[in-house]
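Deviations from the work plan: none for this task. Representative record:
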Amino acid sequence: MQIDIDSLETYNRLAREGAQSAATALSALTGIETHVEVTNISLVAPSELEYEYLGGEFSGVRIGLDGALDGETVLTFDSAARETVADVLAPGADEGMRRSSIEEVGNILTSGFIDGWADHLDAVIDISPPTYVEGSGTDVLPAETTGADGQVFVFRSRVESASGSLDFHILLVPERESLVEALDPATDDAIPFEKLEVFNEMTKSGAERAAENVTTMTGLETDVEVNRMRFVPIDAVPATVGDRRYVGTVMEYTGKPSGYLAILFDRPSAEAVVDALVPMETDGEWGEMEQSAMKELGNIMTSGFIDGWANVLESSIDHSPPTFVSDMGTSIMSPIVGRMAQTQEHAFLLDSTIQTDTDGVFRCELFALPDGAELREVLEELLVERADQTRVDPDEVF
Amino acid sequence: MARLPGSEGDDGGGSESRRTGGNRGESGGRSGRESRGGDGSRGRDGDRIRGRGQNRDGSENANGSGKRIKVSIAEFAVASAGTLTTSGLGSCLGIAVYDPDAGLSSLLHPMLPSRNGDDDRPPARFVDSGIDAVVDALCEAGARESALRAKVTGGAAVVDFGDDDGASIGDRNIAAAREVFDEYGVDLVGEEVGGGCGRTMRVDAATGAVTVERTDGVDTML
């Protein structure tokens, strides 16, 4: 099962265009400007998909796809968008009518979204009648694909309005066989799906080591909650990380692959970590002592994370001293992406979330951006050596 | 095309599923969206033109009066009403070019200084080709090139990489913008650049008035 990276670029564009046609249709219906903020392809364990839908109430439609592409698509409005759509299409109506309006709009938008895929594949995709979904987490997830074994590719677009009143998500989760057939690798330098899966698992192990190091240093219990590999157009990397304010560190690593690692805490978590590290009372300002504590933590987390890669890849990866950062996620990522955009159009963004599993006290996100060509080289070299491997075990493959 | 049960276009046949696709000929408009280089991927409506980078769709048709128009990295937009806005400016620049007489403004969010003649790369990602695209779009929308003025923000060193080929990306972006506007003979009438903080920029489309909010809490009007 081979994945052609160039095909991923094509499919990412299809997903974006599909989301754009949905956004345009919704703007035409409501008169409110919408904008496709992010489109990316994630490789993720099905059990971790629910993190796409935590932290809010969503409503929308789920449809099944059959034919040239098997799988499911879910389109969900957040609660503000639900109100906006219902107010425009069913003003003053009862709850049943409002729900119907969501269903109808979701139906129209998903059709527009899928059209582009069918056009590209020059084939027919059958769409099931829409199922209305409402809630959070697993309530609104694609139903069947989340039960799949192994990791799944998820095509995800986030559409936003400037006022925040009309935001929605579209997820497309194709069945693996169907996607691979559609991707149809025509080139020799395709990468086995399993290799990407294994690399993703390796990253998760690295994040787990980083989390253990946090626990050792601070005494705070931690766990890796989400781990995914995302394939993102380079210009969209900052928006993928988002506008939230973060405190943390950025490192550059060199070796094979080279790249960047950003370890970003939300502010309360950063304060909790520094309180645990700095024995005296701090005044909440990020002075030299607090910054130094954060850098020390960044250093030891990076070592855990990068060592995981280097050991498995049997390569030497060094990292620079951490640089302290405190700003919007987008602003932090822009100089990193500026450097990478000089040589690549897309990036593999490896994203792990470490948090305490009891309450929301501690949350930290690791964003690794390996150099695209070098990552590909690493994976390709391993392919040559182990082309006959069919069963995949990280210890065996690498 | 998709057929939707219970909506316009349904054949009323009562089939349980819909069917989409198959005929590329029906979707001729799509191929046009993939145009690269120049500012070909641009659509317009009554009061607004949006230009974007590679692979991005510019064919918008919202019918609002452009209350708030969000511009992402490697994109630009032109408007005569409402507010153009971009956030998360780190080393990137936020560049407003406007014609106060015509009541037209643009906002460009480039990431790197120069496209270096590589026409395959999205113009709005770069300061030089981005400004070219923006000036073209403004003039096409009715602005006079000789009346154009510019304001620039961003170009910060949010992440201190130390020595970065002699100057940070932010510094090089700022230098490139000054140089390009000098070549155009466009007056750079406002700057709030450099430093180490991220910024959010808002441009009042009708007047070209700019507000810059820094993440250290300092706000500036340009």
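The longest helix of chain A spans residues 95-121.
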